Amino acid sequence: MVKLRLKRCGRKQAVYRIVAIDVRSRREGKDLRKVGFYDPMKNQTYLNVPVILDFLEKGAQPTGTVQNLLKKAEVFKELPSSV
């Protein structure tokens, strides 16, 4: 099963990549694909929406924090209603 989760990148300041990753992998493990970026200090978010929608259509589950970020960016409104 694939999840969309945050992967920490910053050393002193917390900066995160949003990645598609296998559930059994650890947080800093090998990701399948990088799909976004989140900086909580500057409140900046970059999302690769077509790729995220593709993963969601295939059954990927976002974690709670990633789901909140996707709701803010209104990504779920772009999903087909059949999914």
From TrEMBL:
Main location: plastid
GO molecular function: structural constituent of ribosome
BP-aspect Gene Ontology terms: mitochondrial translation
Alphabetized UniProt keyword annotations: Chloroplast, Plastid, Ribonucleoprotein, Ribosomal protein
Superkingdom of the source species: Eukaryota
Location relative to the cell: Plastid, Chloroplast
InterPro entries (UniProt xref): Ribosomal_bS16 (IPR000307), Ribosomal_bS16_CS (IPR020592), Ribosomal_bS16_dom_sf (IPR023803)
One Gene Ontology CC term in the entry: chloroplast
HAMAP family attached to this UniProt entry: Ribosomal_bS16
Record family assignment: Belongs to the bacterial ribosomal protein bS16 family.
Name of the protein: Small ribosomal subunit protein bS16c
Annotated gene: rps16
